[in-house]
Specification:
Layout (H helix, E strand, L loop, with lengths): L9 H67 L5 E3 L8 E3 L1 H13 L6 E5 L15 H12 L5 E6 L4 E10 L2 H9 L13 E10 H38 L5 H72 L5 H33 L7 E3 L1 H19 L2 E7 L1 E3 L2 E3 L1 H17 L5 E9 L14 E8 L6 H5 L10 H7 L5 H11 L3 E8 L3 E9 L8 E3 L25 E5 L3 H13 L3 E5 L2 H13 L6 E5 L7 H10 L6 E5 L4 H9 L4 E4 L4 H16 L1
Parallel strand pairs: 1-2, 8-11, 16-17, 16-18, 18-19, 19-20
Antiparallel strand pairs: 3-6, 4-5, 5-6, 7-10, 9-15, 11-12, 12-14, 13-14
Helix pairs in contact: 1-2, 1-5, 5-6, 6-7, 7-12, 8-9, 9-12, 14-15
Length: about 700
Amino acid sequence: MDNSADVVHPRKLLTWQLFVVMAIFVSVVSVCIILSYVRRVSDAVTMASAVRAAESRTLAIREFRTLYSSEVVKRVKPHGIAVTHDYKQKDRSIPLPATLTIMLGNRLSCTDSQDEVRLYSAYPFPWRANRAPLDAFEQEALRRFSVDASKPYYTVEEGEHGMLLRYATADVMRESCIACHNSHPDTPKNDWRLGDVRGVVSTTIDLNPLAVASTSELHGVLVLLVVMAVVGCVLFVTVLIWQTKRASREARSAANYEYSQQENVNLEKANEQLRDINRALEDARAEAIVATKAKSNFLANMSHEIRTPMTAILGFSESLRGRDLSEAEARDCIDTIHKNGEHLLGLINDVLDVSKIEAGKLEVETIPCSPHTVVEEVVALMKVCSDAKKIAFNTEYIGQLPETIQSDPMRLKQILINIVGNAIKFTDEGGVRLITRFIPGNEYEECGRVSEQCLQFDILDTGVGMTKEQASKLFQPFTQADSTMTRKFGGTGLGLTISKELAKLLGGNISIVDSEPRCGTRFRTTITTGPLVGVKMVDSLMATSTPETAPPPENLCTGKPLDCRVLLAEDGPDNQRLISFILKKAGAEVIIAENGQIAVDEATAAISQGKPFDVILMDMQMPVLDGYKATMALRNQGYEGPIIALTAHAMASDREKCINSGCDDYTTKPIDRTTLIQIIQSQLLAVRH
């Protein structure tokens, strides 16, 4: 029997191997080309996104300045209010549009990223008196805009932490600004015309986050291309094998045919996977659009929430300027301003909590605390709100509760106040009930871990209620049940999101048990109790008495709790006056240093004179030498006295940064006078004992 058909000729075998090597080489080259192309596309997407972001930010800054000039400056001038760059030193004055724009740019630039917004000019405007010399980019931008002000100028530069896009547009004279600029006493020229270039608005964008985002978006495309290249290589090799073996016998031809069919099945599976990836990309795009819309709605809500108390603050501040108010009316104005200021601070705290959640840095503590005390404190606070709306607010305890649990009482109270506050806000008739119950281990699955004991808080109201669709959106960030609720009841849509994350950190959860439109809602919050070995179970009926009223804080004006010399390092004149007033009323002698360098010099001189300061209060953001460097300089010189950091940065990392620089303690702005004095007292006590 002739078996020659079964034998592959050596020359044919060598040719087949050569073709395989060539196919592999072509595949590797293709993959390299694809990787290079994807990299170029990623860079192009990053640059385009950065330019669009810079254009949007620059336009917003410019329109804000124009709105301020045309609406605010125009309205206040007839009332004798000066518009000047040194408004902090003058009564009845507001900042120039350029000064306010610079302040806004500085505020926007005070973040952990490399983003920055600047306004500068070649003219000797008064607000440029203490500015650093212009760098090469800023000088080139001024030169280009002097030739053609219609085109933006931008470059990519190496920053401290990565690549930056520096984007500049000409700040041209608008019609609403000409009259003011030509008549202002500090103007560098009085013949301004429409379209004149008066300066540059510069925006710096950190390209690193955009590069990461664009790379992740193009990753799926890269996977698709690589899969297609691999599949093409497999098909190419299959064709070569089929041609090389076509002279084989019929049995081998059948085997090759079966192999080819299997490859077709694999190809179909690969195509199906590609379709799945495409569907996933479409779903991700839809989710991104929904998220963008939600954040846009949040920004609109936040604008409303900020403008509302700001209207009251500015309005009542203007009322206080009058001289025909009675003492009761003046006190009412001050109380209203203080209440709205606290509301604004609450909004800021909510935004900070959300940023901590997104960064994974929201933390809770675990200490012994009484659940009865927490509930009664919530009742004491929220009873005022329910009484104001003339609705009932009742509490109920089911069974016995542990006398103490291991949890975070402050965060637990924050959760309950948020949910009870929502229930009261959305209830106009009927009332709200808070029901507390202890759940033994292995009974309730919503506590996170089934084996742990839990406390369950049910909050029931007879308010507007929700549909299932509305309830499904409730715990998403920046989202309320629907836009009509936002318009009617206000709010930013952050409270429930924060509360749910806090409940999870406390070992539990928040859920909607049931809700019907116009019939009310039942929210359920659970937290774990921690170990209860040796903890007494208390009859709830015996534990519902009103907690003892805390003694009123010591009168800072008459109690004189401080007897010490304090060096206050603070560059803000208003803060200097306020903090000095608080400390002097508390009995302290206060010396003021306007920047960190002066603080170092004053502290060193006091030691050499044998009169060292008892405490140094160090603002961390100051000119010449900031608080971090000033503190490190003092510690390097051997200074051992207490240094307390004062800062408007309230993140957990900010406290750690202050302590690492050498500070003994830390407190945030706005200043709480009781907290400030208590911190000073504790530091004095630690030193003197």
